[in-house]
Design brief:
The chain is an alpha/beta fold and 272 residues long. Helix content is 44%, strand content 14%. It has a single domain (19-271), classed as Aldolase class I (TIM Barrel). It has an eight-stranded parallel β-sheet. It binds ligand L3UKIRZJ. Its EC number is 4.4.1.19.
Length: 272
Amino acid sequence: MSEDAHINIWREVIAYPLGERAAKPRNKGLTMVIDKGMGIGETRDLLQINNQHIDFIKLGFGTSMLYAAGTLEEKIQLVRSYGVDIYPGGTFLEVAITQNKIREFLDVCQFLGFTTIEVSDGTIPLSREVREKVISSAAEMGFRVLTEVGKKIDGSEVTAQTLAQMALRDIKNGAYKVIVEGRESGLNVGLYDTKGKMIDDDLQVFMNYIDDPSKIIWEAPLKAQQQDLITLFGSDVNLGNIPAQEVLAVEALRVGLRADTFKLAIANLLEI
Ligand SMILES: O=C(O)[C@H](CS(=O)(=O)O)OP(=O)(O)O
């Protein structure tokens, strides 16, 4: 029996209830996992089961600097061996920017084998010029570049229009995708209100500028957020900050193999 025999057997019998689902390698329907320090064994387990459902693993904030000797390199190689991109959290690059060590940071990332760089300004002010320079330097070095829009600091209001315009500029300057900040909590940040609900007016303003929704990765750590985004944009919406233990559950939501989205599929079928 081939390695993916059970998938083919299931798929001969059962179609995904909800829409089509892009297969890897893919440019849409991406899932980014936030990793706050999983061990090598845990990471291997995660990837053995889920490698077809994970596109990026982000090593949260500056955790990359705190691994025991040899373990970071081992983890990076393991993740890459499963065809998954890996990168340090945006906050870590922000630390390097404040210490005027952008080039050195990128060199170390390349040396260690990271495939991707996230350019963000969640905690620091970042001029347009420096932002562009970091994006282009990372891209020239062969990294896949993700950028992020949105602030982490309580009370710092950035309009949806400003976020969208920044996202458009980043894409023009070479970003592969733009992440909309949602943090690990999903509460009171980016386009989410204090309860984690997407603010409809802000979303509408934001999307008025974005003609290709596949360019956006939505940080959506909470199930209700994942469900709302799948309902709004379909199975192949890009989702980020997914906790490792939730990857299969998110995949089930995407394809309608969970009641919360299966009910959409039934509604379509029954035209109700
Ligand atoms: O990893 C980071 O630096 C943070 C972590 S969290 O999303 O704020 O919890 O995320 P990032 O999206 O990379 O800024």
